[in-house]
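F.,

This is the one I mentioned.
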């Protein structure tokens, strides 16, 4: 199993209030799954993504990624797992504004062996995968929204991550551009990429193969897309 979560909780204390952002989540995700996580605001989706992406650790419970127990790793080891195994895509792209597309895509490679030329050629190949080989030297303000998100996806892929994690990847895009990004995700999934994305929109979620619905920090339902309500 690629991902195994056992009885994961994430609790926060704010003043006297205890918030159960995650309240006992059990989940298994196999390689090459394409999963959408849905649920109302505050249901725990981003908290779950942060734990899956090794950006944060659970309060209690066990998280195994590739059969390695990451839930009790120290910060430095966790950062390394994150850098090597996880690619992130965000709603707001999170590109460096002054850096070219190629430079943005190279960023996750700063710890990898090889010199400038090796990094540049991997950036070129990732940008080719997302259809932007001809935009290597453009800066973010010289790119459309959909192109910016493609650069962000290339950056997420450049380390060949085990998991692509996307939190509302089409949230800032119009519907036609969203469809292009989702077509790209579909192609990446066909090529073997494991994808987990958070979305509020049924039209987006129905591109995935499996839909996990969160409610009050728990998994409310977990169904293949054909059996979930988005299919209706
Ligand atoms: N750092 C924190 N400190 C205290 N409470 C937090 C913290 N982060 C999240 N929460 C709380 O945990 C719950 C789950 O938050 P989370 O961000 O995971 O929701 P979400 O499903 O991603 O919502 P949205 O759809 O609005 O992005 C919320 O009630 C939130 O207020
Ligand atoms: Mg969120």
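My design for it:
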């Amino acid at each position: 199993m690629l991902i195994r979560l056992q009885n994961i909780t994430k609790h926060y204390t704010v003043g006297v209030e205890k918030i159960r952002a995650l309240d006992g989540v059990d989940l298994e995700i196999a390689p090459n799954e394409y999963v959408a996580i849905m649920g109302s605001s505050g249901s725990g989706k981003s908290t779950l993504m942060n734990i899956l992406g090794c950006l944060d650790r659970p309060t209690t419970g066990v998280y195994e990624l590739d059969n390695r127990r990451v839930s009790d790793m120290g910060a430095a080891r966790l950062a390394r797992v994150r850098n090597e195994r996880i690619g992130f895509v965000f709603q707001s792209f999170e590109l460096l504004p002054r850096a070219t597309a190629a430079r943005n895509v190279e960023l996750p490679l700063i710890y990898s062996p090889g010199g400038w030329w090796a990094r540049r050629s991997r950036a070129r190949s990732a940008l080719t995968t997302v259809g932007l080989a001809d935009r290597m030297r453009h800066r973010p303000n010289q790119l459309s929204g959909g192109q910016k998100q493609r650069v962000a996806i290339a950056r997420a892929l450049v380390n060949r991550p085990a998991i692509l994690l996307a939190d509302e990847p089409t949230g800032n895009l119009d519907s036609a551009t969203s469809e292009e990004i989702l077509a790209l995700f579909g192609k990446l999934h066909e090529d073997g990429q494991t994808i987990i994305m958070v979305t509020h929109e049924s039209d987006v979620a129905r591109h995935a193969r499996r839909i996990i619905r969160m409610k009050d920090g728990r998994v409310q339902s977990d169904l293949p897309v054909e059996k979930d309500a988005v299919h209706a």
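Helices lie at 45-52, 75-85, 101-106, 116-129, 145-157, 175-190, 202-205.

Talk soon.
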